[in-house]
Records
---
Amino acid sequence: MQLSETVEWGLHACLALAMMPKGARLPARALAEYHGIKPSYFSKAMQKLVAAGIIQSVEGRSGGLAMAKPAEDVSLLQIVVALEDHKTFFRCTEIRRKGPCAAAPKHYRTPCNIARVMHKADAEWRRVLATTSLADLRQSAAAEPIPGVDKATQDWLAETGAVRGL
């Protein structure tokens, strides 16, 4: 299974917004620049997160992106589902029913063992993402800082004047 790169963008963007002071907003362009992503592509991903009610977009001079709800109330699964079009990540096409050696349809009343295992795996990774909140990510990021990144981020934010709404 491979998720699109917009999932990575969305998770990092939401984490960055969750780490901002309450009331702070960042323009989408600044957030894209911070992550080294083309703003046009990044903007489309952010629009999906806005539509899902995970982040909000405030228009105007002091506008920008902010979390729409507390980080504790946002699961990683919500972010993934908002950004991916897939309902499930394994799609069984019942190939066992095709070909020259396939049995009569009456013999295929239950999913095959492959489909059962794949659906179980899908449910398990969704469970992990559903039980991990953005606040959990924020806490682990704060507990394991990368040397120099915090200071560089604070300096960059101050230089660009990207933080708005405070």
Note: The chain is about 50% helix and 5% strand.
---
Amino acid sequence: MAVQLDAMDRKILGELQVDASQSLDEIARKVGSSKTPVWNRIRKMRENGVIGQQTVILDPEALGLEACFFVLVKTNAHEADWQEKFLQVLKRRPEVLEAHRLAGEIDYILKVRVTNARAYDAFYQALIKEVNIYNVTALLSMQEIKSTTELPL
């Protein structure tokens, strides 16, 4: 169930999404409030699960992770045991940035970041060694056009 947020909460969240390292004073000034009410709202949104883990965003290319693959997975095994094993394998693989279970012809889509095609092949070989998969299609992203962590408020 969605938490009820007012316009001030949304302004605060917008500022935090842009730069969570801002001081409370900066955020309060930008949203037209004072420090204590902003802090209380942030605390309440954390308690209600609106604000989760805070982290930094790294540049993958600056770290040598220049290849981004979208991996389409089809399976003919839909048993709970297979699914649990597959999910545990994905959670252990640091290359997997995102994993989604889908409706339709494709069962899962993975976003995988690696240094190059050879590194992707090593990932792929390790994956199919651990889990029986019916079909895997890898799509190399040629250009990232948009990437954001900011949710529309």
Note: The domain at 61-140 is CATH 3.30.70.920 (Alpha-Beta Plaits).
---
Amino acid sequence: MSKQIIHTDAAPAAVGPYSQAVSATGSKTVFLSGQIGLEPSSGELVSENFEAQVRQAFTNMTAVIEEAGGTLSDIVKLTLFLTDLNKFTAANAIMAELIPQPFPARSTIGVASLPKEAQFEVEAILVLP
């Protein structure tokens, strides 16, 4: 896969670990369903702790990406869903730690609720070589 990061000074700069836009070419596009912080073995939330849920959601997403034959570097678009946008900075910090640069495009959405009373959900689009 070939990724080209698109940036213009005519639009606001990214306020976190993401790019304004990403152009990608490859042979296979994979659309991942949202992942919340469930432990795969129990189907229950890993913790009531926000950061623990974020990390588990990214772990779950990584497992699906690997099963599809990709890596975190193949992500071209992420969407984050938070039930409390005051925790945006914490989610950004974890994402910056886990997702390799150049960062994919991203949207962050505040939502009223998520399945199983989760506080965080992540979904992704990949382009595989």
Note: The beta strands are 2-6, 21-25, 28-31, 75-82, 105-110, 120-128.
---
Amino acid sequence: MEGRIYKIYGLVLSLAMCFWSCTEEIDLNQAEDLELSPVIENSLLFFDAPATNFFAGANESSEFSDFIELDLFNNSFTRNNIVKVEFVFDVLNSIKRSFELQVDLLDDLDQTVHTFSFEALASPDASQVYTKYTEVFEGNRLRVLMNANKLSFTLIVQEGEAINENTLGQINMKSKSVFYFNIND
């Protein structure tokens, strides 16, 4: 009998706490003001080559090109919510020659709509020299990028000490694209 009284007393006390407890009014309309700002990073270009890759047969090779096709901006979600894009390049060069990387943005007719370039400095003593470069696309420049269908990359070996089959060092380049979104629907 005594156990039953404690159970009833506990039930009454629990119900009383539910009715008299403090609660804050919840405003579900705040969800309409929700704004998300995700940042997405993606690998863009990777290049790792010893100095001997720039020497073919008896000749020094001074230019290498490649391209990637862009289809990132072909959907309305991306076009409507992207606010900024960065291309970030990290280069380690231990070759006694500097290198220029030229990037061309091409439209669907393969016409250049934007170009940028930067130089990876030469190593004076075969130790690694670090170069970082960031190209930012916002506003009008972002619209130009969104209309590009290809990115063309050209690595150009600059003038300097001759490269042969015994030249030491290597160039290592990594890059990424960073996409900044603002979603507020």
Note: The domain at 36-181 is CATH 2.60.120 (Jelly Rolls).
